[in-house]
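Reopening closed ticket. The problem is back. First fold of the pair:
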Amino acid sequence: MSGSLINMPANVWRMTAAQGLSMTVMNVNIINTGLAGAILAPELWLATLPLSLQFLAVMFATLPASLLMGRFGRRPIFLSGVFISILATLTQTAAIMTGQFSLFVLGSMLLGCSHGIAQFYRYAAADGLPDHMKPKAISFVLLGGLAAAMIGPEIAYRFVDAIDGARYAGAFLVAGSVHLLAFIALLGMDSPKPPRNQSQGRSLAIFISMSGFRLGLIAAALGYAVMSFLMTATPLQIVNVSQLDVADNARVIQWHVIAMFAPSFITGHLISRFGVKHIMAAGLLMYAICIFAALSGTAFWHYFTALFLLGLGWNFLYVSGSTLIARLAEPAERGRVQGIADLIIFAAVAVASLSAGALHSFIGWSGLVLLCLLPVVLIACVVWLTPRGEF
């Protein structure tokens, strides 16, 4: 297996580096945005609004980004995304230093636009590869998040008070500085400009009629939504409700993110060997145990275990779903089909994240966790009912 990783094309390595740097910035935001929002927001229930609108911005950015890539190639759009990310973190830093909640929301939304563009790193890695290599390339790119899981929480924790009188501002500033390295990784990527007047391929209705495409879309969208839902509320629960230390929160999120991306060493190989449906079933099992752990108590290890299992389940569902979407679209169809797919995925993520803060305030942690059973059961039904031979 190690040999196959080493022999990955250069483009895959570049996408992996870019993914890691992008996720480092996002990890800092996941850990600190809700907490910074609690300081800046006029009402406590608005604390998670910047993070939630960040996911909403991801949703709105995906389709335009994909269509622009279809016209101009992936590289210039990826480079633009890095520039937007750095601008966003500078805006967040300035907002905290000046105490402006609305400016902080704007910076968070800009970062969401950047992250929406970064979602296509996984598809770019799979471009031009044979079908049996696509899950391995997608899985390999997500390994970049493993480095981010180590670096992001360290930035989020160690630079919390780096700027006097502006708690959390230093962490956002350092995260943006680190993301400058992405320019180096992306400048040398292979990104041929798509030929003009090419066929647009099959209509979207044909894809929706494919049971394999529906399965990939539902698993990726609802699987990601469940993860976002719990992850958005977790820092508020740990720090504000359970009164644990910010260091405990950073460690829980750090190991959650490690669990999200560490399985990528093997997920692509597992999909190739056992098939998409079996790996999705394994992801659903992780989600079920996660829900049980989250309901078992409010100590550090309850949160740690639940979020770790949540990360594992997300990896299996997201890589499997993305593999089906990438496998079924031909080159002429990628810009449109992948853009629509990610629009739907991040619409689900945005709704989940937007509702997490308010629901946590109104129905509490246990009610929040129990709601996750609904999408988990729905994914399980679709996995069970989709004929294996149709994708």
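Second fold of the pair, where the issue appears:
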Amino acid sequence: MTIRTPFAGLTRRTALAAGAATLAAPLVARAQAASVKVGVIHPVTGALAFSGTQCRLGATMAIADINASGGIKSMGGAKLEALLGDAQGRAEIAASLVDQMAEAGASGFTGCFASPLGLAATTAAAKYNIPFSIDSGIVDSITTRGLKNVFRFFPNLSMTIGGAMPALDSINKKAGSPAKSAVIVHEDGEFGTNTAKAQAAALGSIGIEVKELLPHATPTRDFTNIVLRIKSLKPDLVMISNYQNEYGLLARTLVQQRVDLVATYSVLGGGFNLKFAKEAPTVAENMMDFNHWYNVKDPRSAVFRKKVEDSGNFMTFEVPFGYFAIKLLADAWERAGSTDKEKTIAALESSTFSDHFMPYGPTKFVNGQNQAAQAVALQFQKGDMEVVWPDAFASKPPVFPRPKA
């Protein structure tokens, strides 16, 4: 089902892939199949469209896989039905979509890629006590506000920064500690600002001086002034926390201006993905990021990646995020045997979901946050994305410092 409002941006191809019906479908057709409606809210137009669409792709893949394997078996094989909405990168639209989808009968929600959208949407969903499975949206406050209906399978900001600094420290020390200073470049919204502040507070503990924090707007069309400022500061590291378009533009500008660095080490770099590696292989080579990725040693991950790429899409972290956010909800409904809100929330609270190929163990929720989740250090090497830390999940050793041009 597609929420047809001035806020909904949806291509026909996406709707078909999701198995979505329309609000104009005959009542008889609706009654023929029991369904569990899931609100799927992402920015699929505007500055965040690529990442939002990737999250949606993962969600619709999960819905298709669950339905193909028999639906929610404890509910007589009830099929999942997507209610698709485009938040357009605007928090008020994300909240409005929750209201519309709740009225349309949503039993659960997923979304919303960006933290400001997730904050608004989860607050709206709390009015109805409808379970919300966050796919991407990292700020701690999404799950620390006491909203009993909100669950995040993936790491929050504190957990991610808590891993990013030991990873950088380990990689740097093994190379003889060539990195001693950093400049942090970040988008100026909720995500980038909080991420940059957390990094700045932690870098001193691993012996790296923060020379400056440089915020920028989303969107930003020209990074020349910021890069010239970086060049004048002469840091060893440039650390980046921003979204898809700005990430790639900043990286290109650093190369164009011949900024001499030990490494670029982004934390949650929104454009650190295989699309960027393909489009700008020379720029991307040896760039590093601490981010979410699948367990490369789990054979299911290679099968999943092939399925994504065979469909003509790029494999990015957002795809398994969208996928497992839906799978988490479905597991709760399966165990609850019902879409009753209280029963579903209780099932999520007690979840030990392990049918995944992320580098986590079974879920353990505390106040809606999965304590078993963790991110990993990644690096572009020869056009592919390699895990370089921790050793238990690594596919290749890091190249650090990066070779001189």
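Update: turned out to be a display glitch only; the data is intact. The chain is about 40% helix and 20% strand. The longest helix spans residues 49-68. Please close again.
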